[in-house]
Amino acid sequence: MEPESYSGSSSFKYIDQLIEQGNGELIIISPYISNNYAEMVLRAGKHRRVRIITSQSSAEQAKRIMDGSVQKVWTAAKAAVVFIVAASVGLYTGITIISEVAASLAITSSLLAVYWHRSKKKSNINVRIPERFVHEKMYISDELAIVGSANLTYSGTHKNVEHIELIREPDRIDALIAHFNELWDSSG
Predict the structure, then answer these.
(1) 92-96 contact pairs (CB < 8 A, 24+)
(2) Cα(83)–Cα(92) distance, rounded to whole angstroms?
(3) Contacts for 38-41 with beta carbons within 8 Å, 24 or more apart?
(4) In the predicted model, what is the mean pLDDT of the chain?
(5) Cβ(33)–Cβ(60) below 8 Å
(6) Which position has the higher pLDDT, 104 or 184?
């Protein structure tokens, strides 16, 4: 059985598992979210609902989470343009191998851009940034809640000595969800 609390510099063992392996709604309060955790939350949001309360300090990461695969589409589209130019140069110079390879890569890049654009479904992820700074940290999924001092950053989960509480009692989890919902409703 897992401990009821943990103190140390490896709180990621519990927090990462909660984010990656849950099936139910994922609830997060963390004033700071690093890029690696933004990516992890983005992956979790592909198969379940995620609600996040964070601070203005993590607005860029929150935007990144909400934007999802937009960057993939843009990168593929830019690659297609580069390959189209290369194919044109190949045709102009008479070097057919360059034009054939570049044309093939342009078509592949274009198809990837279209695929990623079409596969981007409505996001399951919602983020709110309250006007007041919310400093608490809380992570809830399925039948586990984690509260404590660890921000959703690499330092907060891998380097700093942090203390977290692991809560499994349904009544306590319900109370934490009610608290989250109050903050959520007042931040909208």
Answers:
(1) none
(2) 14
(3) 38/62, 38/64, 38/65, 40/16, 41/65, 41/125
(4) 83
(5) no
(6) 184
pTM value is 0.70
Neighbouring C-beta atoms of residue 140, cutoff 10 Å? 23
Q: Give the dihedral of Cα atoms 169, 175, 176, 179; nearest 10 deg.
A: 180
| pLDDT attached to residue 137 | 97
**CA-to-CA dists, residue 113 to 6, 75, 78, 142, angstroms:** 44, 8, 9, 35
Pairing of strands 144-148, 50-53: unpaired
If DSSP codes are grouped into helix, strand and coil, which group holds residue 19? helix
Question: Max CA-CA distance within the chain?
Answer: 74
pLDDT tens readout for residues 72-81:
555 666 666 7
| Closest by Cα among 76, 79, 81, 71 to 114 | 76
Which tokens sit at 46?
A: 């592909």
pLDDT at position 9, please? 95
Task: Please say whether the beta carbons of 167 and 146 come within 8 A.
Answer: yes
Query: By the 8 A CB rule, do 85 and 103 touch?
Result: no
Q: What is the pLDDT of residues 37-47, one digit of tens each?
A: 988 998 899 89
